[in-house]
Design a protein that fits this description.
By secondary structure, this protein is mainly α. It has helices spanning 12-35, 54-61, 64-95, 103-115, 118-131, 138-162, 166-174, 179-207, 211-216, 224-231, 238-268. It folds into two domains: 9-52, no CATH class; 56-268, MetI-like (MetI-like fold, Orthogonal Bundle), CATH 1.10.3720. The radius of gyration is 23 Å and the shape is globular.
């Protein structure tokens, strides 16, 4: 008899296709790692003529511009993530189980920034900043990043709220709890994992954003992705740029894994 818990094994063809997709996606990362330690900085000869750790010492001790850009990117990502948590959660709570004119339009406008191409969002933000006669600064970058970071928090919180029994909120209010007490002791514990997942994804998206940053940054603001892009025209420092890319991968990989595990936990509940 067929059991609903049994699993069919994937065919060899399907396994090969999956393996090919994984190689296609991750082979470039392996190449970046390989040429971050090459002894020949001017060419991409394969295999590399030799490997060395000299470039690691150079990026650690002789490139303060890299560490300045890294620090600036982390600060931008933290502020943008904080704004996304605040506004994304507030919008989700306002939309959840509410019925009012324009509800669907508001939901569409909230998720629109992440659906639009980055260059469209960047041009729109730059035009708005100029129209308001504002100076391009760190805060214009933060606003630009927050526009799409809010979406990740909003989507996670709304999905979690839809899985939360509204009877818990009603019981809290019936027992005399204030609105703030209901949020603190009932709603926040239920959406904690969704907030964590949204925050981690927001940080990762903000940290490696290039297009929107290009349109919203001033001449004195250099995030790490912008710094890396500017280094591509300097062939003698290619291994340094590759090592910087490895650091970016490591920094963004951790929050993505945390967000993935948190999302899986949300789906299992």
């Amino acid at each position: 008899m067929y059991s609903s818990t049994s699993r069919e094994k994937a065919s060899h063809g399907l396994r090969l296709v999956a393996l090919g997709a994984l190689v296609f996606l991750h082979a470039p990362l392996a190449i970046i790692a390989l040429y971050g330690f090459t002894t020949d900085a001017k060419t991409y000869q394969f295999p590399p003529p030799g490997l060395t750790l000299d470039w690691v010492g150079k990026i650690l001790t002789q490139r303060p511009d890299f560490w300045s850009a890294l620090q600036f990117s982390v600060v931008i990502a933290l502020i943008a993530t904080s704004l996304a948590l605040l506004f994304g959660t507030m919008i989700a709570l306002a939309v959840y189980r509410s019925s009012f004119f324009g509800k669907e339009a508001i939901s569409l406008l909230v998720i629109l920034p992440i659906a639009l191409p980055g260059i469209v969002t960047g041009i729109a933000l730059r035009s708005g900043i100029r129209l308001l006669d504002l100076e391009f600064s760190m805060w214009t970058i933060v606003v630009g990043h927050a526009t799409f970071c809010i979406v990740t928090v909003y989507n996670n919180v709304v999905a979690r709220l839809r899985r939360t029994a509204y009877s818990q909120i009603e019981a809290s209010m019936d027992l005399g709890a204030s609105g703030w007490q209901t949020i603190r002791y009932v709603i926040l514990p239920n959406i904690a994992t969704a907030l964590l997942a949204g925050a981690m994804l927001s940080f990762a998206l903000s940290f490696d954003e290039v297009i929107v940053t290009t349109f919203t940054a001033g001449t004195q603001q250099t995030t790490l992705p912008i710094w890396m892009y500017s280094q591509l025209i300097r062939p003698r420092d290619r291994p340094v740029t590759n090592l910087a890319a490895l650091i970016v991968i490591a920094i963004t990989f951790i929050p993505i894994i945390i967000a993935y595990r948190s999302t899986q936990e949300i789906s299992a509940q």
